Structures are given as C-alpha cells and as structure tokens.
Amino acid sequence: MSSNATGNMRSISQSNASVPEQNKGTVETLAQSSHAVSDTQDEFKVMGSALTTKKLVIIHPGSKHLRIGRASDVNPHTILHAIARPRRKNGPLHRDPVLIPTVVLSKENKVLVDETYQSMRGTLQSCLRSDGTPRPATSVQQVATSNKQCTPIQGSISKLQLVTKSEVEDYIIGDQVLYAHPMDQFNVHFPFRHGDLNIHSGVGGSLSSVLADLETIWGHCIVNLLEIPKSELKHYRAVLVIPDIYNRLFLKELVSLLLTHLGFGGCFLLQDHVAATFGAGLGAACVVDLGDQKTSVSCVEDALSQRATRIRLDYGGSDITQSFHYLLQRAGFPYKECQPQHPLDGALLTRIKEGYCHLNLDFCGLRDVNFVVERPGVSTLRYHVKVGDELLLAPLGLFNTEVFALTGQDKRGQGQANASGDPEDPHDANYLRETSRRAHKEALENQSASAASMDTAENSTNTGGQGEEDLVVDSLAADAAPDDQPQQQLLYSLDQAILHSIERCSSDEMKRRMYSCILLVGGGAKFEGLSTWLHNRLLLQIPFQFRPEQTEIIVGPKEMDPSMVAWKGAAIMSCLESAQELWIRPAEWKKIGVRLLRERAPFYW
C-alpha cells in the first residue's frame, strides 16, 4: 500500500468530517436519525477491525466486462457483462449487440470519413521513425494486392458447442452468451451501455428489469466464481466502483441491490477515477478512462473528482473495432463473410484489434496478421493476411473523431447532470439552493432597512445589495449546476477532452499539477505508443503559463493491466483503516435511506 494512497484516504476522512456549510442541516438531521442505530455502528466497527480482505468483495461493472473478486485476490475475475434469457413464446425479441452497431452513412458523411482517413494517411507518411529516418507508408491498393491470393487453411472440426434452450433452466451468463444458439432466439441484455444503466423502451429495458439482471449476474458470479454461498453474504462487505459521472437515482437503487437483494453486510460506493488514482498510487492526476463504449476524463486531487472537470464521450474501443473492420474491408480483407453484428465475429475482430493495432511509428510496412475463424460443428479456417497502416489508423480515430460517424454521430461530450429531486431526501440540492437564496435575500433586506436612515449612503447601499444578491444566486447556481454547456455541444478528440477538462480546474496551480500527471486506464489504453502520441499532441497545445517542467503520461502503473487499475485501487482503499467511516449497513440504509449517501459517500453528493 503506497503512502500516497494513505494520504488520499486521510483526505477523504477529513472531507467527510468537515462537512460543507450547505450540508450541515442534512448532517444534523442524519445525526438525529442515526442515534437509534449507534449501537449497530459500534458493533460494525469492531467487526470491521477484525475483518480480513477475504471478506471484502470488489465489484467493477462495465459496459462490456464485469470485474469481480475479493480484495485479497491478485486479479479479479473478468467476464462478459451480459445475460441471455430464453424468449417467451410469442414474446418480443431483444438482442443487445456485442459491438456498437454501424449506421448507414449519408453520401456527405461517407466522403467526410474517407477524406479524414486520407488526411491521416498523409500525416503518417510525413512522420519520422525514432532513429530519424522517414517512415514508409502503405496504401490501400498495396494491402489489397497482397491479400488477393490469400486463401484460408481448413482445419479440423471445431469442438465448440452452441448453448440451446434445452440446456438452460433460466439464463446464460458471461462468455457463454456468445454461444447462444441463434435459432433458439434468446433475449440478450447488457445491463450497462455507454457507462450507465442500459434503460431502453424494449423488452427488459425498464429499471426494474435491468436491476434484476444485475442481481442475477452478480449473484451468479459470487456463488460460482468466488464460491461464497448467498446465505453467507451478510458476513461480507462490498465496494461498488461507479462511473465518475453518475445518476443519483441509479446509485440509490444499486445500494439497495447490494444491501437488500443480495444481502451484503455493508457496502460503499467509489468513483472509478478516484479508484484509479489509488491503484496507481497517485495523489493528484488527470484521469482518462478509455472504455469499450465511452471515454471519460476528470481531474482528481486528494481523492476527490472535481465535478466541473468531468467529461464523458460516447466513443471507445467498440467504435475503434468497427472502424478497423471498415478499413480492413477497403483493403481486401479475405474473410469476406465477417459480420461484426454476429457475436463470435465481433469477439474475433476485438481480439485482432487488441493483438495487432498500435501507435508505434517504428512499426511500418506490411505486417502479418494471423487468426482462426471457429464455428461450432464446422471446420476451422486459419487466415494469414497482410495489413499495413490500417493497424495505426484505427486507434488514431481517438484523435480524429470524425471517423466515428461510422457508429453514429451523437457522441458529444456530457458533464455531470444536475441533481433531480428525491422525495426520500428532503435536504437535496434544490432545497439547499432555495433556502440559501431566501436566507441571503432576508439578510440583504435587513441590511437595506438598517441603512435607510443614512441618506448619503442610501443609493449606494441599494445598488450594492442588488449586486450582492445577484452574485449569491449565481454562485449557488454554479455550485449546483456547473456550466456544462460547452461539453454538451462539442465532440472532443482525446487530447481536446483532456485540455478542456484541465481548463475547468479551479486554480492555476491545480492546472499545472494536472498537466504534469495524466493517467490512462481502461482496456482502450493498451495500444502500444498511445502515450507517446498523446504526449506529442498535448505539448503543442498546453498554454504556456500552465506548462509544467515535465508532463508524465502513465499507462499501466506498477506493470498493471490498465483495465484493472480501478479495481485494484478500490481493493486498496477498502482495506484502509480510514475507510471504516464510509461503510453503510443494511439497518442504517433501511432506516435512513438515501440521505446516508450525502453523509457517507466519498464524493460530493
């Protein structure tokens, strides 16, 4: 456990102990409500001090994968975060795709995409290798000619088997979903999409249905992978890693899922960007999470994600995979039967992308790419193909987001949404804002009345009072609803998103600290050479007055898989002594409810 991580946890304890002025009314109410369960809290602290890491379960759900394990595990179990249920007789059919589906491009958009790729090829052609020599580029025609004579090598009959309805009692979970028999018409659901709950109008798209799917998936993993009987979960505690941009209603339901439905003996929530800094052992960093369907950026300091700096963009590894397939098709990809919407082909394209795509300018010319197409019950087909600069062009879409029009154009940046009212939380943001306005207004009226006798200062007092009232209201509005409009109107590339996030930091000194340390996490950060490419792009754009002595871009800290950094950070944080203040018990949750999150959550509620 690093000293930086310990320092972060102490900051959390201090920030929770010294509650902001606007939340004091809520905390006093909670203190009164909590008095009845103080004995339970004391018992919980005693139990927590003797609790080993084997009794802590860390859950990190994602749009594509679920990572779950004990805090004592070296690495978590990673499975496809999906569930397939047999379709009811004459019922509707719903299938969430493994990859984000492509859209039919208009003529204008197709021209834009092709022109962007052509411009990117020109950029690669003008680049130099690390030894200073010119980098030879490859053309589409050159790759297509090399693959023209490529024929697959037929192998033995595949031993893979499809999962049929007769073999399933109620559901299929994890990677087995890829092998659900298409003729049996399973409903396939991914509970998370684009980093949030997958709520939609189709079958299984209601909030209650999504929560039921999560309960089934997580419960199955706990029993079968962690080998913890469900009846024993009351002796275990859970840490749920949540997105940095969250929906308060969803968080409330997820806490109820952990404590009430699954039956854990305690839980707390932790934002993924904060968890990533713990995993990397950093006190402050601009965290960039490159996921399968979203890219998120925020600035984290002293274990707090700065709300105004949070940006989420709806593109990620899945969009890169579809772009890669588009480029392969144009270069004479010999596996012409490939259908990205098919689960097995989608998984195959993802493996090829992860195994071969890169951003290393020293790798040039045609490269051999080998893969095997395997279908249950038929002969395997082994391909040996040639691929050129397509291996770089696909991940370069992160810096040229116009090409992601292939998967739709609604990928603009999003910030933290304003809090909606909750009937269970009377002291929510709306209440605090309105009561603060009234209090300031009354104070200003009293001040004006007392100064009315001073004829010489009457006009100046009224004018000053009006200005102060406007300032107070604006300040409160800014507190409750930061200016997220620029984020919602623009489609940022990766480097632009980082620059915009850091620009929204509250002080110049914080901006310098964030520019000096950028942490890349998530499965999309595994491309070789990504950190160097990003570093060169940022150096050209960082404002002169904020340039640090050195800009460090960290990928895979401590030789860790970037996709597991947040999970590992949550495991570290859950073991700290200071984290005992954050746990929420079932009895407390049942009695006090969502108001506990305002007091216990290690982030601004």
Automatic annotation (TrEMBL):
Record bears the keyword Nucleotide-binding: yes
Keywords from the named record: ATP-binding, DNA damage, DNA recombination, DNA repair, Nucleotide-binding, Nucleus, Transcription, Transcription regulation
Source domain of life: Eukaryota
Keyword ATP-binding recorded: yes
Annotated GO CC locations: nucleus
Signal peptide bounds: none
Basic and acidic residues biased stretches: 424-444
Pfam family, one: Actin
Chief localization: nucleus
A biological-process GO annotation: DNA recombination
Region feature (Disordered): 1-39, 410-468
Family: Belongs to the actin family. ARP8 subfamily.
Described function: Plays an important role in the functional organization of mitotic chromosomes. Exhibits low basal ATPase activity, and unable to polymerize.
Name of the protein described by the UniProt record: Actin-related protein 8
Gene coding for it: EOG090X02LT
